[in-house]
Amino acid sequence: MGKRSFLGRHYALAVTAVIFAALLAAAGLRSTPGVLMVPWETAFGWPRATISFAAATGIFLFGFTGPFAAAAMQRFGIRATVMTALAMMGVSSFASLFMTAAWQLVLTWGVISGVGSGCITNVLSAVIVNRWFVKNRGLVMGLFAASTSTGTLIFIPALSALSEWGGWRPVVLAVAAAMILLIPVVFLFLPERPSDIGEVPFGADPDHPPEEKSLGNPIHTAFATLGEGVRYRDFWLLAGTFFVCGFTTNGLVGTHMIALCSDHGLAATAAGGLLAIMGLFDLIGTTASGWLTDRVDPKKLLFAYYGLRGLSLIYLPFADFTFMGLSLFAVFYGLDWIATVPPTIAITTRVFGPKKAPILFGWISASHQVGAASAAFLAGVAHTVTGNYTDAFVTAGTVAVVAALFCLMIGREQHRWANI
Predict the structure, then answer these.
(1) CATH architecture assigned to 5-193+216-407
(2) 3-state secondary structure of 354
(3) Contact present, 321 and 406 (Cβ < 8 Å)
(4) Tens-digit pLDDT profile for residues 315-333
(5) At what angle do helices 12-44 and 122-132 cross, to 10 degrees?
(6) What percentage of the chain's residues is helix, strand, coil (to nearest 5)?
(7) Domain regions of the chain by residue span
(8) In the chain, what's the furthest Cα-to-Cα distance?
(9) CA angle 336, 55, 347 (to 5 degrees)
(10) Res 5: pLDDT
(11) Which residues contact 7 (CB under 8 A, 6 or more apart)?
(12) How many whole angstroms separate alpha carbon 403 and alpha carbon 314?
């Protein structure tokens, strides 16, 4: 027991690789509306506010699905949940090839892909980390969070080039194929629990007790756990600051950055390259954040991350919109694109315990996506009204600086709720 290995090492490393690939692909899918905003606007004549609404719908459902996905993983299994989610994303992407009306864009890239991708997000990461690891949880969580930036690094430049070459349809087809090809990989190489293959979690003692299987209704479990969490101020502080995280990352920058650069005469491939630079630095920053989370007070890390991000966003509208002029923003903003994830999960686990933390983090992530959806939609509306994104980016940066101050208030309550 506990000595079964993968290429001479613990099988948790193989699980990490499979989950990293799934998270990477889901990140690529969620990045696609940002790549295709201008091509869809050109092809169909839809205003940017309409396309932003579809993107906002997907982002919102991406987050709101999280707590139910975490409960479903406990009830039906990780493998079944992830395979179903990949199928939903693949089918909805392929179906969008035949859309002719804006409501079909909302259905495919908003509703169906939003629910599917919501099952393959940081909630999945939290479940895997708590189930397969006892040691180095922060580092592994950082690697999983960095998969989003790696998805950006890999997908956005390639999809931008593909869009310039063949229009939006080859992009959609490529995304659909990536989702479908991952299904057999998950089926073959993702066990449900370490005990299923004679393992214990990485770093655990040989007599580590196996995780109990949940037999409860996932919907009831998700809402019951939320009912316990909302009684505590720390839950609201974590949810509120994570709302700002979504508002200032994939909702604003992830959805509108390429369009912003296009407004300033920067080609889609160059803008995609800029996002790739951001992705590269976030791969470094978020992995380092995971390492630091195992060693430094997480709330101090959150204070630094939100403050740096806010200043970067305030700077952006006044930057020189050349590729070189934007590089400074790409480096500093990229370093903490989603570096907030490892310390937020660490605090959630510390406060609420490893069993309930994934579900409560699902609700906290839901607030993240509400923030992201708000930014995706409101920035599109602001652009339609004013013709630029200046107010949207300055406002987002100011809100991030305020969130940094709120992070210092986390953990001041006297109680500890690791067993609730």
Answers:
(1) Up-down Bundle (1.20)
(2) coil
(3) no
(4) 887 777 766 767 778 887 8
(5) 180
(6) 75, 0, 20
(7) 5-193+216-407
(8) 64
(9) 35
(10) 45
(11) none
(12) 14
